[in-house]
Amino acid sequence: MRLSALSRRRCCAIAASALLAALLPATAPAQPSYPTRPVKLVVPFPPGVSPDVIARLWGEQFTRLTGQPVVVENRPGASTIIGAQAVANAPADGYTLLWTVNNTFSINPYVYKKLPYKAEDFVPVTRILSVPYVLVTSVDSKYRSLQDLVREAKARPDQLSYASAGIGQGTHVALARWLNQAGLKLTHVPYKDQFVPDVIAGRIDVALDASTGAIPQVRAGKVRALGVTSAQRIPALPDVPAIAEQYPGFVGDSWHGIFAPKGTPEPVLASLLATSQQVMANPDFRAKLVEYGLTPVGDGPQAFRRFLDEDARAWEKVVRENQITAQ
Q1: 199, 221, 245: which is the final residue of a domain?
Q2: CA distance 172 to 174
Q3: Both 200 and 271 in a single domain?
Q4: In total, how many domains does the chain have?
Q5: Which string of DSSP letters, residue by residue, matches 76-132?
Q6: Which domain of life is it from (predicted)?
């Protein structure tokens, strides 16, 4: 009897253990931490320009923190469309990312009738920084201030010229935004290549150039800075007024941000964001951005989405008011 009772108790214990195990959730196999291999960062600009330079600086810091290389792949052309399409069609695994500017999502959808990508094809990860433009003229120009330029432009409508990197580019749309607010008319001269040499030579009256390109030219004495498009003066050019000082509320900055293909796993996005925020917290990295005239930001996805909505509405208005279209 004693053996039989012990056997029954043992069987009951085993059965209870089996039932408990069946009720407990299965433990998922541990996922490898991200990243476990090199990350491709698609930059839709040629080597050496602002987005490429800063993306590489960020990549160096990412590699230092994760031990995995960041391979920058330059896919220039068509106002960032070529690079954006490449990432939209890439596997959503976190190993192909897009480093881009405001054209891709805030301007192109309103300038082009058809695009091979949609904003919904991407997940915004983080806005890295803001890019002020600098309004420049030749150092030999008679325009020594923004007021000089405005006075001449009002006296001679459509007689002064401004260059840009092409129709619908940030350098075009941002200046059109200011011209609207100032009530001025200048003749637009779009370029497919570098336009700053013609500004230096005086063949073009003025142009907006990204701070990263304009600041070295200002310091070298080749161009004169008349204003910056940020809401306030920038530390790299403390003596150059913000255009908003004369035209309150005006802002014409661009930005750099990181996007992943739609469907990228949330743990991967979270890890990517956490690493990027570590990069943004690095004092040396931030100091380098400020040296280039850039404004560090580091927004997370929610704040970035809100910003993108506001940014797109603002630039859509400028595009429509100026009837800016491109093929």
Answers
A1: 245
A2: 6
A3: no
A4: 2
A5: --GGGHHHHHHHHTS-SSSSEEEEE-HIIIIIHHHHBS--S--GGGEEEEEEEEEE-
A6: Bacteria
- Give which of 170, 208, 190, 184 is closest to 315, Cα–Cα: 170
Residue 21 in domain? no
pTM of the model: 0.88
DSSP letter assigned to residue 236: T
Helical axes 266-280 vs 283-291, angle rounded to 10°: 70
Contact 327, 306 (CB under 8 A): no
Whether residues 138 and 110 share a domain: the answer is no
- Check if the beta carbon of residue 83 is closer than 8 Å to that of residue 259: no
Instruction: Tell me which residue range forms the domain holding 109.
Output: 39-131+254-321
Of 302, 266, 317, 274, whose CA–CA distance to 65 is shortest? Answer: 274
Q: Read off the DSSP letter of residue 233.
A: -
Cβ atoms of 62 and 97 within 8 Å: the answer is no
Which has the closest alpha carbon to 56: 99, 85, 86, 92? 99
Read off the pLDDT of residues 31-82 as tens digits, 9 standing for 90 and up.
569 999 999 999 999 999 999 999 999 999 999 999 999 999 999 999 999 9
Q: Is residue 178 part of a domain?
A: yes
The answer to whether position 304 is within a domain reads yes
In contact, 171 and 324? CB cutoff 8 Å:
no
CB 218 within 8 A of CB 225: yes
**pLDDT band at residue 20 under the 50/70/90 scheme:** very low
Q: Which of 254, 105, 231, 49 is nearest to 172 (CA)?
A: 254
In what side-by-side order are the strands of the sheet with 39-43? 70-74, 39-43, 96-100, 254-261, 122-131, 295-299
Q: Please give the structure tokens belonging to residue 255.
A: 């930005």
Indicate the residue among 200, 224, 245 that finishes a domain: 245
For residues 188 and 202, give the distance between their C-alpha atoms in angstroms, rounded to a whole number.
15
Rounded distance between C-alpha atoms, residue 273 and residue 126, angstroms: 7
Bridge-based pairing state of the strands 187-190 and 295-299: unpaired
